[in-house]
Amino acid sequence: MNKQIRLNAFAMNCVAHQSPGLWTHPRDRTSEYNRLPYWIDLAKALERGRFDGLFLADVLGVYDVFGGSPDAALRHATQTPANEPLLLISAMAAVTQNLGFGVTSNLSFEPPYPFARRMSTLDHLTEGRIGWNVVTGYLDSAARGAGKERQTAHDDRYDIADEYMEVVYKLWEGSWEDNAAVRDRVRGIFTDPSKVHRVKHEGNNYRLNAIHLSEPSPQRTPVLYQAGTSPRGRQFAARHAECVFMSGPSAKVIAPRVAAIRALANEMGRNPAEILMFSMMTIILGRTEAEAKAKHEDYRRHISPEGALTLMSGWTGVDFSTYDLDQQVRHVQNDAGRTAMDNITRADPDRVWTVREVAEHVGIGGIGPVIVGTPEKVADEIEAWFEATDVDGLNVPFAVSPGDFEDISDMLVPELTKRGRYKSAYAKGTLREKLFGAGRARLTAPHPAARYRPHVGRTTAQ
């Protein structure tokens, strides 16, 4: 039996996100990113299409690699300005009942103690619909904004991240027992102190001696997303992630990355099938082929090539302003994101990219494939993609928002549902239960978070 297709919308609290220049299209509303009505309308459109979640990207720092300046990013709104994503969630949760929220937060510049409380708060307010996309960052500009000269070396960032995860697991899973908040009005006792445990941690990067400030939320640990597919990133994902997001221009690039993470998870004693893989794909729909192609051509007229190269320069750490447009892109290794450079150099040895081709490709939907056509044709291509890559779902960016998501909800979802490849209704429960099944609200062994659950007889809070 073919597995069901899962859909996440892919967006960011900024203008245009993955399609630089498309904010100028008359149907696009992302220039309203700093007003709640835009996000509320988007959330309602996604819930109408029974999307599993809204995956919110985020970047600390400005894209200033292109030309050695932030000017191009500022001119073209290349993920600048960008507002805090966490603050959007409560408003969108209030107008939906089932939509999940996977929100990106960079642990490199976020102390674990206040961050753990922030995520617990969102898990309470969403009634268990929150997920965390764990990232370590890739921009030197972010490090300078945090008072450092440059970002920590690539693989070292993941070593720090492993310890960070240990600290937040201890807070989320080990500080409060499930029945600690007794809410006893007769005795006037809200919390039983004997069931709240102090977390003590002394590590290479973090020290902590505290109780978690939040009572247990529906999921305790949020659903864990991860987006790194470098060798060290894959190792981190295989250990911690429940959902892995990856980007690449073709099935030939995506399939080996999926297989590599599943193999690593198996080596670590985890069930590889319980790590859900999401790949990026932009979908442009029309009622007829001619309508879809005309829409795509219309979109392409709004692409900002300089904005696209500004994005790629930030992702790869390579200043594409110094390249001739018809020059071939060659591999460079540095402490920026590794995956974006691999995508256009060595991930597919049969494909050679020029700078001009990179700009044209990234102009709509970033580095993922763009599928254009009727609902029937697009559904065929998605099914073929799933067969070729073994992914479990798609992270769907947009050219125009919320219009492209409304098209998916109104045209593609009915076609996928008719084929039996898409859910006819949301499952009940938390985000983790919707993704992995009833009774799975909390992480269980062998996931490393489960080992920090409280036990009777540990030191209580002072």
How would you characterize this protein structure?
This protein is of the alpha/beta class. The chain has one domain: TIM Barrel. Helices cover about 35% and strands about 15% of the residues. The protein has helices spanning about 35-50, 70-75, 90-95, 110-125, 140-145, 155-175, 230-240, 250-265, 290-300, 305-315, 340-345, 355-360, 375-390, 405-420, 430-435, and strands at about 5-10, 55, 100-105, 130-135, 180-185, 190, 200, 205-210, 225, 245, 275-280, 280-285, 370-375, 395. An 8-stranded parallel beta barrel has the order 1-2-3-4-9-10-11-14. It has a two-stranded antiparallel sheet with strand order 5-6. It is globular, with a radius of gyration of 22 Å.
List the helices and strands and how they pair.
Elements: E1 6-12, H1 36-48, E2 53-57, H2 71-76, H3 89-94, E3 100-106, H4 112-125, E4 130-135, H5 140-145, H6 154-174, E5 181-184, E6 189-191, E7 199-202, E8 207-210, E9 223-226, H7 231-240, E10 243-246, H8 251-267, E11 276-280, E12 282-285, H9 289-300, H10 305-316, H11 338-343, H12 355-362, E13 370-373, H13 375-389, E14 393-396, H14 403-418, H15 431-436
Parallel strand pairs: 1-2, 1-14, 2-3, 3-4, 4-9, 9-10, 10-11, 11-14, 12-13
Antiparallel strand pairs: 5-6, 7-8
Helix pairs in contact: 1-14, 4-6, 6-7, 7-8, 10-12, 13-14
Structure described in brief:
The chain is an alpha/beta fold. The protein has 15 helices and 14 strands. The strands form four sheets. It has an eight-stranded parallel β-barrel with strand order 1-2-3-4-9-10-11-14. A two-stranded antiparallel ribbon has the order 5-6.
